[in-house]
Each structure stands twice: as structure tokens, then as C-alpha cells.
Design brief:
alpha/beta, TIM Barrel, 9-stranded mixed beta sheet, 8 helices, 9 strands, 28% helix
Length: 247
């Protein structure tokens, strides 16, 4: 611990942690809808619980007052992943890293799957990434496969004050920083955050469909000086109804 921050996880043997249970929402196979892996067949592993309550959240069924759909051991989760053909995993929630040691153990188990080539973690920017980055650096398969997709919350989310700016120090070139833009103010704040804190990783900007027309976001992106930024649209909202689950 350092000033209240946990630097690394100390896990028991696999014989113990493989039986740890996590509260779950769903595990399903579809195509990744956004970011660098958009369009690739992907297994989504969605755990229950979140420490934020974003105004525009589209997965409110993944935290209280909703209830978990089921519980599963790490072994059972891995068995379900193995029942699909996809070689990519999206570890999501809720907030997938909120379960700390259990999240870390599940990541290790995922990385040990030979057929998996990419594990991207949709984390919300409020969870301390340092112990998970140290975990990645300590495990060769995690180094090769694991990527953070850090969703930095902006004013329209109502949760910007919860963001942990220290997380920018943990991101590497293979990681992504997602900015969900709900207003022109959000875009202005994005530029300020990037200018002051960005180090490494792919910057992705995505519209809140109800309040930021994608065409306007493209205009803002072209007018800006954001380095290495790309537009990211949620393909599943184009292909399926926005409220349809398991797709």
C-alpha cells in the first residue's frame, strides 16, 4: 500500500482462486461494437456492480438496484468462454475491475487460454489501475493480450469528479482512452484533459446518441487538434435496437 493505494495483488494458488465466485450479468458472443477491435467476433464477459452512476449509462441492469443474474466461479466462467469460437474477450460491466483480486484472478485465467489473442477491459476511469498494470507486467500472457479501455467520464456523465488522473500514467500504447461526448462542453473538456494528462494509448471519441449527433462530433473532431484521435461509433446500436441485450 502507498498512501492508501494498493500497488499489487497477492493471490493464493490457482487451486483456490479458480473456485472464487463473481456476481454476473451475462456471458455472450457477438461482434465488438466500438474501439480498436470493432467488428471482430468477441466474447463479452459482463460482471455485476459499478461504483459510478453515469446519466447516460446503457447498462443500468448491471448494478443496484438491479440484481445479479447469476453467480459463477472463475472455472465456470472460463468454461463458458471456451464454449465459443471467438478469440477476443471484452471484460466489462458494470465495472469489471471492482472485484479487485477476483477480477485479477479472472484476468489471469483468461490470459492462459491459448486461443485468446486479445482481452480488453472496459474500465470507468475511477478504479485505480496501478495494481492491474503491475499484474499485467508480471504475467507474460497478460502483457501480450491484456488492454485497458479507460472510459474517462466528462461533465455530461455527472461523474467527472470521480476520475483518477493517476491512471494516465499506467496506460501503454496498446490501451485505449474513450471519451463519451454528450455536449460541446464535453468535447472542450476532452481537449483539456488530453493536453494536460495524455501520455500513451489510442484516443477514441464516441457520441451520446441522444444529445450529440455523430455528424456534429465529426465536425468537432476535424476542427480540433486532438493527437491520434479517432471516432468510435457503437455498431450494435446501428445493427440492433439500442435496448436489445446479448448482442
Amino acid at each position: 500500500m502507498d498512501g492508501g493505494r494498493m500497488k499489487s495483488f497477492v493471490l493464493p494458488s490457482k487451486d483456490i482462486w479458480k473456485n472464487w465466485k463473481l456476481p454476473m450479468v451475462e456471458i455472450f458472443e457477438t461482434v465488438e461494437g466500438e474501439g480498436l477491435q470493432a467488428g471482430y467476433p468477441t466474447v463479452f464477459v459482463r460482471v455485476f456492480h459499478c461504483n459510478l452512476r453515469c446519466t447516460w449509462c446503457d447498462t443500468t441492469y448491471s448494478y443496484a438496484p438491479a440484481k445479479p443474474e447469476f453467480e459463477a466461479t472463475i472455472d465456470e466462467i472460463i468454461s463458458t468462454i471456451n464454449s465459443f469460437r471467438s478469440s477476443r474477450i471484452c471484460f466489462t460491466g458494470g465495472e469489471p475491475l471492482i472485484h479487485r483480486e477476483k477480477s485479477a484472478a479472472l484476468l489471469m485465467a483468461m490470459a492462459d487460454l491459448d486461443h485468446i489473442v486479445d482481452i480488453h477491459i472496459e474500465t470507468n476511469g475511477a478504479i485505480d489501475l496501478e495494481p492491474f498494470e503491475n499484474l499485467r507486467n508480471s504475467h507474460p500472457e497478460l502483457q501480450r493480450k491484456m488492454r485497458f479501455v479507460m472510459d474517462y467520464k466528462l461533465p455530461a456523465s455527472g461523474e467527472m469528479d470521480k476520475m483518477n488522473l493517476e491512471n494516465f500514467k499506467e496506460l501503454q500504447n496498446q490501451d485505449e482512452i474513450k471519451f463519451v461526448i454528450g455536449s460541446e462542453e464535453d468535447f472542450e473538456i476532452t481537449q483539456q484533459v488530453v493536453e494536460n494528462h495524455y501520455r500513451k494509448g489510442q484516443i477514441c471519441v464516441s457520441p451520446v446518441w441522444e444529445s450529440m449527433p455523430p455528424r456534429r462530433l465529426v465536425e468537432l473532431l476535424l476542427e480540433s487538434h486532438l493527437p491520434n484521435a479517432k471516432l468510435s461509433l457503437q455498431l450494435h446500436k446501428v445493427i440492433w435496437h439500442p435496448e436489445e441485450r446479448g448482442v
